[in-house]
Hints:
By secondary structure, this protein is α/β, with parallel strands linked by helices. It contains 4 helices and 9 strands; from the N terminus they run E-H-E-H-E-E-H-E-H-E-E-E-E. The strands form 2 sheets. A 6-stranded mixed β-sheet has the order 4-3-2-5-6-7, with helices on both faces. A 3-stranded antiparallel β-sheet has the order 1-9-8.
Amino acid sequence: MNNYEKDIEVLFSEKEIQDAINRLGGEITGFYKDKNPLVLGVLKGSFMFVADLIRVLNFELEMEFIGLSSYGECTESSGEVTITVKSPDVLEGIPVYQNRHVLVVEDIVDSGNTISFLKEKIMEHSPASVKVCTLTSKPARREVDIPIDYLGFKVPNKFIVGYGMDYNGKYRNLHYIGYLKNPPSP
Ligand code: PRP
């Protein structure tokens, strides 16, 4: 028992996460293996997932990152998306996305505002295609109807942490995905 386990109910173990990544790798390979896609990791939450995901993609690809944030110091998404790490290609018109197949990789889709914002930005740069891969999705909280092309797990309407996901900056280093047993009030 580590210090975290009293705070967190485990939803998906390290093994279950790796099994999901292997399955997603197969699905993603089917579409992208000859397309040299640009894989776009959304920081911070996706850093661990995208690192493990690209290791099961055994074909040519390139990586980019952008930092987006939709949460303040509270447990609910604010709906307003802030760019925290700039991708020059998104913001300054460098044509990295032009005619490229872009695979956006997220840790969680909650309201859908972040993915919706990012897809719109990328679409301004004439990509060949844009698809979304997310490790987790919380359908109960969706505000924007955004298609998810590759999904790891549906999660309940709880505050999800671990494997890259945080509460107030904590718990990103957990090997598993869980939820806070006693979340603070929003
Ligand atoms: C999380 C997550 C997604 C977004 C999803 O990021 O990584 O980017 O929220 O929420 P939404 O569907 O309601 O927009 P967060 O704002 O917590 O930033 P972080 O990744 O840096 O932790």
